[in-house]
Specification:
The complex is a heterodimer of chains A (about 120) and B (about 110). Helix content of chain A is about 0%, strand content about 55%. Chain A is built from no helices and 11 strands. In chain A, strands 2, 4, 5, 6, 9, 10 and 11 form a 7-stranded mixed sheet that branches. In chain A, strand 4 and strand 5 form a beta hairpin. Chain B is mainly β. The chains are: A mainly beta (about 120), B mainly beta (about 110). Chains A and B meet through strand 5, strand 9 and strand 10 of A and strand 4 of B.
């Protein structure tokens, strides 16, 4: 247990569906991240939130829409996805972002997404 | 962007030291080197990080060369549970941005 939880752990959706991934951290951190991990590809940073403000959007298509209502929760809203979006989506948190503070990231277990 | 290069796979006998190398020859003076590992079907787990000096914690040791162009992660007594993909990651000082490579798949053999 890393203190970062993600739900659901597995999700199968059609290309016309709308779904949301949820991430919650119990560590008192101020920064939260979404990563995508496709088969045989490096982990890709998607979004970064620092104190609820989005500070990084790594050229992610608009069919992925993040939301950070507070420092403990992060959502990824999905709509009209493509089969190539099938991947493991990982959430992480850290004490801060963009500072010199000790900044190791704590990862959740991920959501395995399959788009049919 | 600074990038890292790691061997794709390594084997290590159980109980022996596992030495995982990483090349980061384009690293600049204020960039940290982080090591994470990912056990199958789990999220990455932080192991250790360093800037210039060698570092040790309860999980591993990190040896950084004097020119900072490469580093080695040492698991002193590898166990079967250490089988995982190990990532050497460069983080820009003052930023949150990690650059993950493809990592080294370490297999600890009984």
């Amino acid at each position: 247990e890393t203190g970062v939880t993600q739900t659901p752990r597995h999700l199968v959706m059609g290309m016309t569906n709308k779904k949301s991934l949820k991430c919650e951290q119990h560590l008192g951190h101020n920064a939260m991240y979404w990563y995508k991990q496709s088969a045989k590809k490096p982990l890709e940073l998607m979004f970064v939130y620092n104190f609820k403000e989005q500070t990084e959007n790594n050229s992610v298509p608009s069919r992925f829409s993040p939301e950070c209502p507070n420092s403990s929760h992060l959502f990824l809203h999905l709509h009209t996805l493509q089969p190539e979006d099938s991947a493991l989506y990982l959430c992480a948190s850290s004490q801060g972002a963009g500072t010199s503070l000790l900044n190791e990231q704590f990862f959740g277990p991920g959501t395995r997404l399959t788009v049919l | 962007d600074a990038k890292t290069t790691q061997p794709p796979s390594m084997d290590c006998a159980e109980g022996r030291a596992a030495n995982l190398p990483c090349n980061h020859s384009t690293i600049s003076g204020n960039e940290y080197v982080y090591w994470y590992r990912q056990i199958h079907s789990q999220g990455p787990q932080y192991i250790i990080h360093g800037l210039k000096n060698n570092e040790t914690n309860e999980m591993a040791s990190l040896i950084i060369t004097e020119d900072r162009k490469s580093s080695t992660l040492i698991l002193p007594h590898a166990t079967l549970r250490d089988t995982a993909v190990y990532y050497c990651i460069v983080r820009y000082s003052g930023t949150y941005k990690y650059i993950f490579g493809t990592g080294t798949r370490l297999k600890v053999l009984a």
